[in-house]
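Hi team,

As requested, here is the filled-out complex form for the phenylalanine run. I kept the field names the same as last time so the parser does not choke. Let me know if anything looks off before we queue the next batch.

— J.
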Amino acid sequence: MGQRDVSAEVPNEASVAEAVATALAAIAQAATTAELSAAKYEHNGDKSFLGLANRAIGGLAPDERKAVGLLVGQARGAVNAAIAERAEALAAAELAAKLQAERVDVTLPVAQHPQGAIHPITAMLERVGDIFTAMGWEIAEGPELEASWLNFDALNFTPDHPARFLSDTLFVDPPEANKLMRTHTSPVQIRALLERDLPVYVVSPGKVFRADEYDATHLPVFHQLEGLAVDKGISLANLRGTLDHLAKAMFGDDIDTRMRPHYFPFTEPSAEVDLKCFVCHGESVGNPDRPCRTCRSEGWIEWGGCGIVNPRVLAACGIDTDVYSGFAFGMGIDRTVMFRNNAPDLRDFVEGDVRFSRSLKGDAR
Ligand code: PHE
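And here is what came back:
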């Protein structure tokens, strides 16, 4: 468009002015940055009239060079200035158009996705895990489908111990495989002792299974937290201190614990741990005018079992019982949450209604 052959003629005022006019018209007409680039190439590029004119200057006689150089230089400068100005205007227009096209109407209603909530058991297990890891303990895990040897024999259960009965334990076919759904988290004690170097300080949260009723206070699947410490010079005092710390971290500083003598095959001596009722603080005991629903006016709530690890268990794991001793404890997590949150019915924990989780959210943490 409007190209002239400059090889034949020396650029003069008229031809340069015409080229500038053509270029400015094309620039003004460019409606997009892409069209503007094309116009720039066509009217001020190396092969345009002005580009070639610029190149021709070097071949001119010295007396012509200065005037033509000035003429062409000013012309190109004017064209470049027009291009820059147009480029800015086009960029601004294009940005405005883009912003307009991508406009978001923040007043439109949003799609409502129902939000879940952390289950109170999960929240409690995480909370307890944090309390122990803060003391340098580790979290250990074991399978829910467990070898009968790890669930019973290695824990010093005699072959005729009643816990092994079909009425208590869910065995898994075929019987000769000796597999069962673990009835407690204590087999993780054995796994930890077999797999880890001493000293061992582990807590192990997880599901356990028993052939139990399904009602407000029993679930056939529930959660336990197991703790095991094996080191040199471990005593009952360490166990007591650890459980007190856990109870206070979970229920607040004014909670009290007590131990009652008990029997477990894998601990000796053994005890059951109770929590002082944090609702009535024991004041409902023998006081029919002030009954307490939380502890059923007993003043204490059963929390779990504990004891000094039976040396036979340590020996079964190849540990020198003259050098090492340990303590262990295990408690029901569902019961703990129930107690802590005054939740009346254990079935709410498994029925999957998010409103239940939401109602305990934050509280259980
Ligand atoms: N495993 C026992 C139970 O399920 C609890 C327990 C754990 C007792 C560790 C002593 C030591 O009842």
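Two things worth flagging: The chain has eleven helices and ten strands. The pocket of phenylalanine is lined by residues 184, 186, 226, 264, 267, 270, 304-307, 328-330 (CB under 6 Å).

Thanks,
J.
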